[in-house]
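Why predict the complex rather than its parts? Because the way molecules touch one another can change local conformation, and only a joint prediction can capture that. The input here totals 492 residues.
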Amino acid sequence: MTRTIQPLLEAYGALIREYVDGYLTSQPQAPYLHELLADYPSRGGKMMRPCICMANARAFGGRLEDAIPFAGAVEILHNALLIHDDIQDESVERRGLPTLHALHGVPLAINAGDAMLLMAFGPLLDHVGSRGGTFARRILDVTRRMARETAEGQALDIGWRQDNRHDISTADYLSMVLKKTAWMATIWPAQVGMLLGTHGLVDPESVVRFGFFLGATFQIQDDLLNFASEPAYGKEPRGDLFEAKRTLLLIHVRDQCHPHERQQLDHFMNLRREERSAESVAWLADLMLSKGSVDYARMVAESLAGAARHEFTRAYGHLPDSQDKDFIEDLVPWVFNRAT
Amino acid sequence: MSGSQLPDSQPGMEQEATPDGRWQRPPLEREVPLRSGWSDGGPHVGGRRITDTVEDTIRTAYQVIGENVRQGHDAAERYSQHAPRGAAEASRDLGTLTSRMIQLGRDMANTYFDAMDILLQEVDQRRGDRERSQERRDAPEDPGVDDAGVPR
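Output of the joint prediction:
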């Protein structure tokens, strides 16, 4: 079912890692900065985002070597956002190691994230100019949209917790996931790739729906993996519960629980992160299991995966068969069944 | 064909007619389709029927993405109105440019004629000065004595 996923993730991932490593190490050896820039990329990662960019470029007729810098930009930007995301969420672990701000302090980590955000545009700017004004304009347009949507989604995620919002609905959650996750993780990489493959001559809107359903499935599975927190997960066990993140599990359990349980849950959500004990997190996890919240979230993810398969046919069905087209289609069951 | 029996090619029919003379099928074993158990919603997951969850999820998700796409189109239109690259913006720019060019031409013409006027006035004044100077040079000198040599 996911026959093309691992081979392409490994093959494309190796090329992108080499490019990103070379790009970051070619910068001046600035003290308090250089070491931090290379840290997260050197820890590995799934490379899903840049591989989506590569596969789209190839599926739409582009050349592999042309796609590498663009996929590299996607990966650098993703790592930059991870640094800031970890600070905002007060996360302690990333890819099995302490987060960057836990190692070097918040000010230096913010600075490294800022530097990487700006550096990510280097490969884009270096390679759009030679392809004509229309292509450059479209790449910048989709990038501007992605930046805006991602920032809006992150603001919702943080703002809901900051204001102790308890009235978040499934529609609110999906809207936040569309902005915070899908635009950066799936929609934008696909758009950059397809624009590259067609020299800017295709409507980037055509992959938005597919990217949304794929990205939302990916995010719900991420929430479920965080809940399960198997040893290979690589993040703080049940960090989402400690942070009282407004996930589908939390929204569902609050909707299903009895009034006295809801009172206790609201009290938990009103606490600051450092005030939430391991015992209270264990209580919430048990409540989610007993109310069927985990099964519910999995059912929602499965529904969205089905919609993603439908939208794949609409967005990519006209393309000639290729390994890259198969890879994009196989992403749907892969994100739904992945264990890391 | 006799009036009270069906031919053999009518399987499932009673071989005998009912007292009112109508032919009837035997009673059916069931009157509803065989269901998998899912068409009435299936098992419950998380306090809801599975089919309800799937239906609500798909409907809500399409509403969310539909709204996002609409907002994207609105934003794109706003950007294109602000960016100096749309055809409408270009024609408005052309009108402004033309009126500015006319105004500039008018100002330049006025300035030109003003300058010429000043120049001509200056030329006239110089000519007048020169003629007056020439007249003075052409006038006879006053000797200061009369013809007899007696001072005046």
